[in-house]
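Q: Can I see a sequence and its folded structure?
A: Here is a first one.
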Amino acid sequence: MSVNFFETACKESSRNEKQFGICDDQNGTKAYTDSSNNTKWIAKITNDNEIDISFTAIDNCIIVYKEGTKEKESSCDGMLTFAESLYLVELKKQGTQGWISDAKGQLENTIKLISKNHNLSTFRYKKAFACNKKHPSFTVIDTAERKSFFERTNGFRIDVQAEIKIK
């Protein structure tokens, strides 16, 4: 069964503010963008050039089941699309160890699901962001792990930070 990740009711209207956030109330509802209450933001979007950006909620909105079961596939919270760019975003609010590997697993699985249903070669810039409100600053991932992620995901670069700069 084909799933369309790009033309869906889960896609918000595009926005072009210089700054907004992505929120996840973590109560079983989908992630969403917000420009008024930065205390709810898990990821901060910095968009200095005021580019039109679309956010599409994935987790708790675009439901994909594991083949032959009623079990939901693990997916990241959402994606940002603009120009020739596709940014996947996983939002966390936990201080526990292991959150990065959990986030990477969700991002990788989402990339696999999207790739199975779409040709992603039209996107020149592909990134995957693991964002954690409790660990907002940039986390260094060693070069070998970055390279491995890039190869496993057909060209997605991984970043672990709570600020996403749109260029």
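Q: Show me another, different protein.
A: A second, unrelated one:
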Amino acid sequence: MKENELPLFEGLSDEHIEWALRFFRLVEVDYGMRLIEEGEQDPTLLCVLEGELEIKTGDTQLGMAKPGDIVGEMALFGEGLRMASVEANTNSRLLLLDRTGYQQLRGVASPVGRALEAFALEQLMQRLADTSDAIASLSEGTPAAVVAPQKGFFASVRALFGSGGPYKAHNVDIESVLRAVPFFMDATDEALAEVATCLKAAGYASGSFLCTEGTIGQEMYILAKGLVEVLISTEGDRVEQLATLEPGDAFGMIALLDSRPRMASVVAKEAVTVLVLRLEQWQDLVAAFSPGGSAMRVAMIRCVSDQLAFANAQLAQLEIVRHIEDTRPLKPLFMAEAHMEAHGRQLTPAEPVGRM
């Protein structure tokens, strides 16, 4: 594959592609060469021109990168930490883009930065869908199968948190809330002001279902005030509490990226205020050639990257335990499902308020 034939350049003029390639470095690597080491700090993007790369976490293979694919976008758009290792499965030719090069592409009035962000998000969405399929496959025949909860589940949740209900949220400074969201960490005031126009504030009483497992959603949420619980239904209408989300955390992103059913329920633990981004506003914003559009694309790349890394780690843990004990422990599977639906700075198992 020639450099100007990479899918990430699709739709760009020859002039823009030629200009963009000045920021990439062409390298040739030998079979077996370790290109990325899990746990290292290295915000470099790899674009495969020829050959094949193997992507792994520990001893678990996550996938293969072939000509036209990109690898390393999690580190480039995030904090630079490698979440998986990458090794050349054949002799390969690659294009490399470091963070300085990306910032230069992003900082000028050119469609190249937008094209790179859009392609990275599209590829991550596909990987997230593949991971969702893996979770569904492992869930089959277990109490963790993703299905619409039965009446007993909702009764159990009401007993824990109340019956809920919406109310009007007043005096919410949306831009201030966005500044506290980790995945908008380097967005400019101009970009946040644009994103803020696409969000609406809403209030919900304790016990309100903001996301319901097994249903198709049309919105994502950013928590501005209060606490919410991430839950799944298990065998016998029981409630498995997996995590507590705090202000600045987000959930429901799958609804904007894919038409798959929600993989977990999110319920108000107390009175909460949330910012709601609906599918129509998301589609307009993410397609925009503007500071807000770029900030939203990068924010979602970071969010999906974190979700994907966490879910893959849980699945890898599940495989390790299964090999050792010849069992199918459910906690890693539950947590993988939870992190497919929510993004929290501390998405860890919640303290047991009660498993019913």
